[in-house]
Every structure is written in C-alpha cells, then in structure tokens.
C-alpha cells in the first residue's frame, strides 16, 4: 500500500481503487508526433487531438473535475481530485491539454459564474471538447495587470469589445477565453470586469489570433485582437466593476494556491519524464564526463547537485507542512511561495543540467546525438515562461513582502 | 516504516510548543537576554557562563528535558518532532541553557540500549543535565579519532569543543579502548577533571575543552562498547536539533528586521518600500520555510522512517546553516549603522547562528555526506 493510500478517507480509498483499476485497463495509445513538455507548448493539431482524446476519456471515467458539483459536470466528491492526480501520475499518463481551463477558468467560474453558465460550459471544459485560454496580459499591462485597456462598451444587453491581448497560450486552438477587460476608464481597479468569451466562433468576425514564437523556436502562445466583437451580458462573471476581485481567484489558482485543486496528470514526451527533476541530475552526472573523468566525481558539481536536491525536497516538504496549521506562521505563507519557488528551482535545475552536460548541452532537440533528446536545454529556455508568467518572480516577491511580511507597498 | 501524517505534529505537540513559546516570551524578552549575556562587551574579559539558573529550574519543572526520554526510563516518551518544536522556541529567544546539550546527550543515551544508559536517561528525566565530550582537538565533531583513552580503567587525554560544559552535571565521553571506542558517563565534578573554558564568539552558550587526568570509571558508567555505532545512529537527531534552533533564531532575525523595515524611513518611505531590502527578506523567508520543512521532515523520519533519517537530517542541517548565514548577514546589514553596534540585539543572534552553522558540521560538509548517500562515494 502506498503512503498516500494509508491516509485516505473511506471515500478516497474507494475512489483510489477505482482509479487504479480504470487506469490499469485504459490505453491512451501512442502519439504519432513528439509531445511537448507541457500543455502551453502544444503546437500542432496532431499533438492536441491525441491529448484531447486522453482528457476526454479520463473525464468520462470520472477522473477530472472530481470535486466539482455534479450540476457543474463534476463528480460531486470531496478531496478526490488529489487522489486522481496521484494515480494518473503514478500510471505515467500524458498531461492534460486543457490546462488553462482546468486550472483557471473552471475554479473562477465555479466561484463567480451564474449557475446556467457553469452548467453549460464546465462539462465541455472538463472533457476538452472546448479548449480554453486566458486573456489577461496586454502590451501595456504585464506586471501591472490592473492597467488593462481592452475595453467593453455597453449597448443594451450586449457589450462591444475592442483591444489587444498578448502571451495568450493555446489561443490558436481555443474555443473560449476568460477575459479581463475595462468597462470604466475613470477607475483603475474598480473599472475592470470579467467575462467568458467564445473566440473560435468569432475568428474573422471580430477576433484575430496571431501566433508568437518563443525563444525555443516553438509556438504555443499568441496575440489576440478584438475588433468590435459583440457578446451578450450573460457571459459576464460577477458584477460589473468586480473584475479585479474575480481575477484574484484566477491568479490564486494559477499560482497553485487556490482552494480548488487543478486536475493534472503525468508526463510530456516519454524522454522528458525526468526533465526538470533535481534527482535526475545524479544520473545525468554519472553519464557525463569532465576531462575524461566521471562528472559525478567532481566535488563542485556534487555540491551543486545536492543544493538543488535540498531545495526541491524543501519545497516538497513545504507543501506537506502547509497542511499542518500548527507548524505554519501564516496560513498563506507557503501557498503564496509555491509558484515562485517551483519556477526558480526548475530554472536552476535545468541550468545545472546544462553545466553537467558540458559540450553535449550544445545539442538541441533536432540533433540525434543530444542527451535526453535535447530536452534539458529546451526546459531551461522554457523555464522563463514560468518565472515570467502569472506574475513575474519580482512581482511574487512584492506580494510576499507586502501580504505576508506586511512591508510597505512598492510601486 | 512509512512517512507520518502531518509530521506526527498533533494536539499534544502543539500544546507543548504553544506553552513553551509563551513561557519563553514572558520570561526572556530580548532586552533581558541582552542584559543577561551582553553586559560586558570587552572581548578580553574572562570567559563567563552566563545563564538564568532559576529560569532553567522552571524549564526542568515544565518537563522539557523528559520529552524524548522513553516512558520506561521515567520520561514522557514523546516524539523527536515534539522536542524539535521546543528547540525551535528556545532558538527563537536564543535561550542560554543546557537544553540542547542535554537533549543531544539523551539522543545518544537512547541509542546505547544498555542498563547504564537507561539509568542515566532516568537521571535526566529527573532533572540532571549532560553534554557530549566526543570531539578531538582537530574538530571532527563525532569522528572516531577522539583524544581520550581508557587505560587500566582510567580516562586520560582531552575532549574538545564540549558544548555548555560549565552548565551540566555529567559528560558523555568517547574514549579509545583496546577494542575500539566506548562511551562513558563521567560527572563534571569528579576528581581528575579539568574543565577549561573556551573564549567563544557566541554569548548565549559556553564551550570548553576538558582534560582527563587518570579519571577512574566503573562498569556502572560504561554506556556502550561501540561508540561509533551509537554516535552514527544518534547523529541525525543531533543535526536536526541544531537545525531547529537555527530555524527559530532565523525567524526572530527575519521578523525583527521586517519590523525595522516598517518603522525606519529614508527618502520619505519606510525601508520596506524599497525592493532592494524587501526582496532579500522574502528570500530569507523562503529559506527559513525550506529549512523548517526539512527539519520537521527529518525529525519525523527519525521517529518513523529510520531508513531516511541520515539523508533528511543532512538536508535539514545544510539548508538551515545556509539560511542562518544569510539571516545573519541581512539582519545586520539592513539595520544599517545601528546594526553594527553592541547595543542593537541582532549581533546576539548572528553569533548564536555562527556557532550553530558549524556545530556538528557546516552546510558544505553535510552536502558532501549527502552526496555520498545519494550518489555514492567519489571514485578513487
């Protein structure tokens, strides 16, 4: 019996047995193309269709949205998404493609949308029938997110939207978008409202999606232009002027600190399952050489590998400690660190992997001699996506210094 | 054995810790600590052992020294996690006391599994204190190459870097014998013992080297015939307790510096407004949280996953030592000129942390040992 299984409630234990049984019999097949490292790097429709089929089957089996109410298309269970996540990872299943829907749109709608909207949209989100994306950042609103200028003008029970969103992952496939926009130009924070918007059906009719190319050479994120897009008021979440508060729910979940656990599953490409894991640096060093000697015998590299492993283990044990109220100084102190710490550990781990690989680290994903398929240099470059997105590390440090430690607000 | 839920930190442990926190905050506010240990700044003064014996007596009565003594030996038989929580609190107030030394002695006695060790654990549960005298002059904390030898039933030689030697009743001495190394219990008041105080940086504890001049020891004092094995089994616990002290002290350093960031103004803003000061303090908070999580993980592993104890304890001590160095550095620097003065309290913690950082091996040492566990030894 696994360590987790020993601590299960009766409902979790029964559900875990069910998940294991289903997962052991389920075969998602073999992708015809290389899978990317995560959902936000999906470039091709072949990648998406393979992953979408897998998510749909997992949802049909009840492994996704487990803790959401049945009326919202969920499983109506309590604390079972964690069980499903553990079992999907344990079974080595592929990752879930509709990550922005599952991790951000779903919890935001759960807490802020009208019942009819949730009932209509959440089942298609969970099954990946509808791919979701997030329209937050703009050319003039990055770290200063509340400065968004994309404007919605009220016309009867309709809104007319004009503006420009950037860094929009998955917009090139997306059916729907969560959209933070301005409904009042006279007030910065209170002038924001929050909508869900069908974008695919409006392509060429008020919505234009233009791909952006990342430093990795991969696509996956985009610019989205709104040109007099007309939508109904029934797509609004919460009240007019409450967009900033609704966005906080989205951001809290995006940073892994929200009350609804994001459904998640295992691996990207088979080769990359260990990419980003500090413990994987040990075998990397054992298989690499320096001056003809094993890199695993280099005391400086050994020390740096141990530093990475200690940070990673510290972060893992921190997630464990965050659940023990008596051992925490402040209930949000560890949860609000999660995104910052995880992203920097991943970046530093990938950078160290490149050091260990030495000359071999110059070989990229299209080189047949590249160790681990060139995924380590790719992971290093991709890591900036995580340290910059969802509030750059510097913004995270402001948030922690102000909300947790109570220091004066920086501009 | 498997990982305990919630580090086995439950209601009993929380109650014990909360009581300790209040007791220490009421009885040893930092200004009182400063009066107690820092009244004479002269670095050439005689080396003193400054502590509040009355406060210690109350701590003994509260039962802190019985926490990890097994019930069979007259103690409370609680987990190392419980003790860790207490040590974190004593670190938070930088308590000068024989608490950590005695707790370390208890951890070693617990691993001896001999009638004599059981007896002396009972003595500790009854209020007696002890410290380890296991280190040679070269400073290899728990290594086999001790400088004390047993010849004809008598101990000769010297033990070095003995923690809080002038506060305790008994020593646990590592000595070379004809068969290897053994552990003996020796009273600090016995004939033939010369305790020489070290002049140390840390004002909140004392340290000494001890000369043994043909000190006779009997069977009732022989704790173990295999000091190597005992010390190796006890080492994760020692590392974890020192890490816990650093976590408590580190949190004091963080909170004290953060408070200063709120009241001190320059350029028309409180200092915390400036990201050059705010962000490093957030980094410190993250380091404290990592070290603290690893420390409770190590304590919990020692209690319930012995196969992982050494690995996790080395992670905890390494992480806490790095954190302590950074906490000391930033807490002095961010207090500015006043932080460089004797009257500001931050130097007390900086000095305690400096001592903690090296006690039983610094971060680099722990990482080298950890690498041996995780990667195997360096090829010859």
Given the helix and strand composition of chain B, which structural class is it?
A: alpha+beta
Morphology call of chain B = globular
Q: Kindly report the name of the CATH homologous superfamily of the largest domain in chain B.
A: Butyryl-CoA Dehydrogenase, subunit A, domain 3
- H/E topology pattern of chain B: HHHHHHEEEEEEEEHEEHHHHH
- What is the assembly state of the chains in this entry? heterodimer
In total, the number of strands of chain B is 10
Helix content of chain A: 25-40%
What summary fits the major beta sheet of chain B? Answer: 4 strands, mixed
Provide the helix percentage of chain B.
Answer: 40-55%
Residue runs with pLDDT of under 50 for 5 or more positions of chain B:
none
- Average pLDDT of chain B, rounded to a whole number, is 96
């Amino acid at each position: 019996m696994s360590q987790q299984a020993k601590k299960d409630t009766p409902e979790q234990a029964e559900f875990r047995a069910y998940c294991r049984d289903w997962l052991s019999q389920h075969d998602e097949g073999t992708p015809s193309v290389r899978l990317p490292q995560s959902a936000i790097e999906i470039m091709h429709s072949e990648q998406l269709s393979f992953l979408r089929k897998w998510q749909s089957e997992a949802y049909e089996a009840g492994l996704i949205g487990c803790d959401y109410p049945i009326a919202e298309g969920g499983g109506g269970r309590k604390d079972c998404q964690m069980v499903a996540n553990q079992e999907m990872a344990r079974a080595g299943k592929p990752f879930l493609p509709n990550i922005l829907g599952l991790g951000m749109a779903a919890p935001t709608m759960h807490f802020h949308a009208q019942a009819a909207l949730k009932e209509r949209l959440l089942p298609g989100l969970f099954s990946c029938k509808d791919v979701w994306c997030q329209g937050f950042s703009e050319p003039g609103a990055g770290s200063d997110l509340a400065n968004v200028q994309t404007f919605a003008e009220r016309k009867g029970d309709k809104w007319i939207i004009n503006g420009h969103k950037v860094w929009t992952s998955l917009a090139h496939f997306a059916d729907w978008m969560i959209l933070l926009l301005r409904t009042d130009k006279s007030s910065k924070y209170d002038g924001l409202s929050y909508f869900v918007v069908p974008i695919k059906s409006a392509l060429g009719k008020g919505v234009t999606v233009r791909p952006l190319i990342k430093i990795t050479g991969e696509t996956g994120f985009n610019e989205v232009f709104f040109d007099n897009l007309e939508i109904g008021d029934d797509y609004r979440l919460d009240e007019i002027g409450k967009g900033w508060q609704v966005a906080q729910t989205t951001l809290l979940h995006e940073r892994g600190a929200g009350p609804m656990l994001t459904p998640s599953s295992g691996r990207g490409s088979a080769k990359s399952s260990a990419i980003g894991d500090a413990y994987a640096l040990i075998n990397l060093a054992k298989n690499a050489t320096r001056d003809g000697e094993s890199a695993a015998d280099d005391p400086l590299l050994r020390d740096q590998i141990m530093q990475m492993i200690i940070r990673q283990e510290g972060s893992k044990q921190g997630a464990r400690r965050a659940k023990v109220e008596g051992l925490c100084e402040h209930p949000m102190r560890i949860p609000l660190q999660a995104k910052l710490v995880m992203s920097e550990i991943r970046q530093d781990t990938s950078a160290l992997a490149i050091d260990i690989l030495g000359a071999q680290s110059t070989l990229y994903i299209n080189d047949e001699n590249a160790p681990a398929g060139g995924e380590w240099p790719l992971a290093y470059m991709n890591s900036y996506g995580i340290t910059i997105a969802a509030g750059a590390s510097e913004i995270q440090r402001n948030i922690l210094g102000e909300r947790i430690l109570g220091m004066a607000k920086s501009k | 054995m498997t990982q305990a839920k919630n580090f086995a930190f439950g209601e009993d442990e929380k109650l014990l810790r909360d009581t300790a926190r209040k007791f220490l905050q009421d009885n040893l506010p930092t200004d009182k600590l400063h009066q107690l240990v820092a009244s004479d700044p002269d670095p050439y003064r005689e080396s003193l052992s400054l502590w509040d014996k009355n406060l210690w007596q109350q701590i003994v009565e509260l039962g802190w020294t019985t926490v990890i003594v097994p019930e069979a030996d007259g103690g409370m038989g609680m987990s190392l996690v419980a003790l860790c929580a207490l040590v974190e609190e004593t670190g938070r107030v930088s308590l000068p006391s024989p608490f950590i030394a005695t707790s370390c002695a208890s951890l070693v006695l617990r691993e001896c599994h001999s009638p004599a060790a059981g007896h002396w654990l009972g003595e500790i549960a009854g209020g007696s204190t002890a410290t380890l005298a296991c280190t040679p002059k070269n400073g290899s904390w728990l290594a086999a190459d001790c400088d004390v030898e047993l010849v004809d039933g008598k101990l000769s030689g010297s033990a070095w870097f003995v923690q809080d030697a002038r506060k305790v009743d008994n020593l646990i001495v590592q000595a070379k014998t004809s068969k290897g190394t053994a552990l003996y219990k020796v009273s600090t008041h016995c004939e033939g013992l010369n305790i020489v105080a070290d002049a140390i940086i840390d004002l909140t504890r004392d340290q000494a080297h001890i000369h043994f001049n043909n000190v006779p020891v009997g069977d009732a004092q022989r704790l173990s015939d295999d000091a190597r094995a005992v010390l190796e089994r006890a080492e994760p616990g020692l590392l974890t307790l020192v890490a816990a002290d650093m976590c408590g002290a580190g949190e004091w350093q963080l909170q004290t510096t953060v408070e200063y960031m709120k009241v001190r103004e320059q350029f028309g803003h409180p200092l915390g407004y400036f990201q050059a000061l705010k962000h490093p303090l957030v980094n410190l908070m993250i380091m404290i949280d990592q070290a603290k999580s690893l420390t409770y993980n190590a304590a919990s592993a020692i209690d319930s996953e012995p196969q992982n104890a050494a690995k996790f304890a080395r992670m905890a001590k390494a992480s806490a030592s790095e954190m302590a160095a950074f906490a000391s550095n930033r807490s002095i620097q961010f207090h500015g000129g006043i932080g460089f003065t004797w009257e500001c309290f931050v130097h007390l913690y900086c000095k305690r942390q400096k001592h903690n950082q090296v006690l039983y091996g610094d971060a680099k040492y722990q990482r080298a040992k950890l690498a041996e566990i995780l990667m195997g030894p360096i090829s010859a």
